[in-house]
Specification:
By secondary structure, the chain is mainly beta. Among the domains are: 19-113 and 208-258, no CATH class; 274-296 and 325-437, Lipocalin, CATH 2.40.128. The chain has helices at 19-22, 274-292, 307-315, and strands at 29-39, 42-54, 59-61, 79-84, 87-100, 103-111, 126-127, 137-138, 214-215, 251-258, 330-337, 346-352, 361-369, 375-384, 393-400, 409-415, 420-428, 431-437. The chain is elongated, with a radius of gyration of 32 Å.
Length: 449
């Protein structure tokens, strides 16, 4: 089942939806971030963090939208498509939810993409009965009555294919046993014991998960909007290992839930000249080093030489000074996107300096090539480890189509020392503008970006 009903902008869910306006409401589209540790597809622990819900008019905060008490984006049996660079890499079914780091998160199971079904009936059969002809021919059905004159062996029914094995029903005895059948109308014995799955013991629920953790597949209100629904797991949902805190090996991927079956939209940009990619990256790295204050200073001018020194140098030229290696950029992430078909390249670079956290500096750059083949910076963000809660660092997650308009937005995590948020930036007409900032995901308090 998929969510096909939404509410008008700024409206709060009152418990029922006006049936008169329900047919006019657009389909909701939720964007979240799946976070996990371990192997992709088989994580040790995972959680899904709601970011936005697009109601057809504006972006709502996915961590707050239609909370009863859990937000709609992490309601039970909601299914998300996991995206990497715009391509679907798997599914995630939410089974239960709870509060982590002061905000709602969903927990469930990472599932592989279903394999495409092959209709065997549509594959033509090859008739190889004619051994004298090497050419395969399509199998032709024997006309009715063609083998009517053939006699069948005694005790066996006539068949139009004597080489085909035939299944026979075994003879039934006169005992009281009856074959099991889906149409059996025998009344069920009310005293017969029935196997039931036991409810999870209290110690199976993670002790570090805060309150309001529950399985929520059985929402009975027919008027409540729903996102894309996975297969119902009933009330005995398996509690997968939940992910708590922000471990150093945390991995992230974009997740989208939409009732519409929209095609994948890859975001990779293909350079017409492969040499331009390296040139642009070097220019952007030089800008990043300058912003971080680790750019190599220009070489000092050589001191003036005497006449005798110049004569000796003319006889034996001095070797050129070795080129200084550029300062390293720690945790560098460089991506090039085509956020809309034919829109050109959008470059994103994030990095930081080495050292203790209080002395580290963090930089984020969004740029595009100009008409002369040089890097034009559209957005620049700089902070340091001593002021992360006032000015958090920006970590690129991926590009995502949050508005279902076939255009990608850049999704960043804004991580402070004790708090974090998520933000969407839209790059359009030579500008990078903030489109949305979430309130959820705070460890201490709201982040001011």
């Amino acid at each position: 089942m998929a969510l096909a009903v939404a509410l008008p902008a700024f409206a709060q869910y009152p418990g029922q939806v006006n049936q008169k306006d329900a047919g006019k409401a657009p389909t909701l589209r939720a964007v979240a971030v799946l976070e996990w540790t371990g192997e992709a597809g088989k994580p040790k622990a995972s959680r899904i963090v709601p970011i936005t819900v697009y109601d057809g008019q504006q972006l709502q905060d996915g961590g707050l939208y239609l909370s009863r008490p859990e937000p709609l984006a992490v309601a039970g049996d909601t299914e998300y498509q996991l995206k990497k660079n715009g391509r679907t890499i798997g599914l995630f079914d939410v089974t239960h939810s709870g509060r982590v780091l002061g905000a709602w998160a969903g927990f469930g199971e990472w599932k592989p993409l279903p394999k495409p079904k092959t209709d065997l009936a549509s594959i033509p059969k090859i008739d190889d009965e004619d051994d004298s002809d090497d050419k395969p021919v399509l199998h032709r059905k024997h006309p009715a009555g063609a083998d009517a004159g053939k006699s069948a062996p005694s005790g066996k029914p006539a068949s139009d294919d004597t080489g085909r094995p035939t299944l026979h029903k075994p003879a039934q005895d006169d005992s009281d046993s009856k074959p099991v059948s889906s149409t059996d109308t025998t009344p069920i014995d009310p005293d017969r014991p029935v196997m039931k799955k036991p409810k999870p013991a209290p110690d199976e629920v993670p002790a570090d998960a805060q309150g309001n953790v529950s399985s929520l597949p059985g929402v009975t209100d027919p008027d409540r909007p729903r996102l894309m629904r996975g297969k119902s797991s009933g009330n005995s949902a398996k509690l997968e290992p939940t992910l708590m805190g922000l471990p150093p090996d945390l991995q992230q991927a974009v997740a989208v839930s939409d009732a519409r079956n929209l095609p994948d939209h890859p975001w990779s940009y293909k350079w017409a000249n492969p040499d331009d990619q390296g040139k642009m990256k070097e220019q952007l790295e030089d800008i990043a080093r300058k912003e971080l204050g680790i750019a190599q200073p220009p070489p000092a001018p050589a001191p003036a030489k005497s006449t005798s020194s110049r004569r000796r140098a003319a006889k034996k030229p001095a070797p050129p000074p070795p080129e200084a290696e550029p300062a390293p950029l720690e945790d560098e992430q460089y991506r090039v996107f085509e956020l809309a078909y034919g829109s050109g390249a959008t470059l994103v670079l994030t990095a930081h300096t080495d050292g203790a956290l209080a002395d580290e500096k963090f930089v984020t750059l969004i740029a595009q090539p100009d008409l002369y083949g040089n890097v034009l910076v559209l957005f620049k963000h700089l902070t340091d480890g001593a002021h992360l809660d006032e000015n958090p660092r920006m970590r690129l997650v991926d590009a995502v189509d949050a508005l279902a308009d076939n255009r990608g937005e850049l999704l960043f995590e804004l991580r402070g020392a004790t708090s974090r948020q998520f933000a969407l930036y839209r790059v359009l007409r030579g500008q990078a503008e903030k489109l949305f900032v979430s309130f959820g995901g705070n460890i201490g308090g709201p982040v001011s970006d």
